[in-house]
Request: fold
Amino acid sequence: MATILIHPDTASATRATAERLLATIRANPAAVLGMATGGTMEPVYTALIARAAETGQSLAGLHTFNLDEYIGLAGDHPQSYRTTMDRLLFDHVDIPHDQTHLPRGDATDPATEAFDYEAQIEAAGGIDLQLLGIGANGHVGFNEPSSSLASRTRIKRLARSTIEANARFFGAGEQVPTHAITMGIGTIMKARRLLMLATGNGKAEAVAAALEGPVTASCPASILQFHPEATVILDQEAAAELKWRDFYEDIHPGGQEVYFADRS
Ligand code: F6R
Reply:
């Protein structure tokens, strides 16, 4: 079972996620970090930039690998995940750009690009800490329900509900991508540690299914139950449907993990 940390509010959950990233970087300035995009992560990156500046923590030794990228969007497209990550994080810290990796959405051969991306992660020594959001349908990365639990980086069709949810980032009349290159569930499971953040009541059902339901390809995030080092940070709304919520709050009051400092 994952370590489940329920915070009093969204700001606290977000801050705790950023602090945990920072603690990982402090412990290993050459860490390989798996990054995620999506609305949930935006305040995390804002907090990480601020805390890195306040504490004088350099990010120059890191290597990062993002979970996914839309197929059909060049890296300089305003809605590509490459542009988004540069705007939200990479342009504001001292990590060299060539140490930040995302699949190339405009690769002429996306299948080969996906295969090569997996190999690049391996060549970097694997991911030390993978940051994850969760889709309202239980997806992680763009591994939609029915994705193989052993899958590796590959092309995935996005579910209609995911395309609709992502449409908010695109202008009226703009084509929302229907396919992505995404790390597979097997790729994500190879990361040494997983850190999931979910906030807001739109995630409550998926969070309960992932943490307390059966491990099933119908809810890809449920695979976290099989990871030995998974931490899930929630706000009150995202935790609302958890059956054993009282228990998690007894173990970690206010979302505090007593032994966190020792494990970072
Ligand atoms: C994005 C990603 C997705 C998002 C998920 C939640 O890189 O991998 O799995 O984490 O769709 O997105 P938000 O945070 O926008 O609700």
Summary: The first strand starts at residue 3 and ends at 6. Residues 32 and 63 are 5 Å apart (CA to CA). Residues 36-40, 67-68, 133, 135, 139-141 surround fructose -6-phosphate (CB under 6 Å). The radius of gyration is 17 Å.
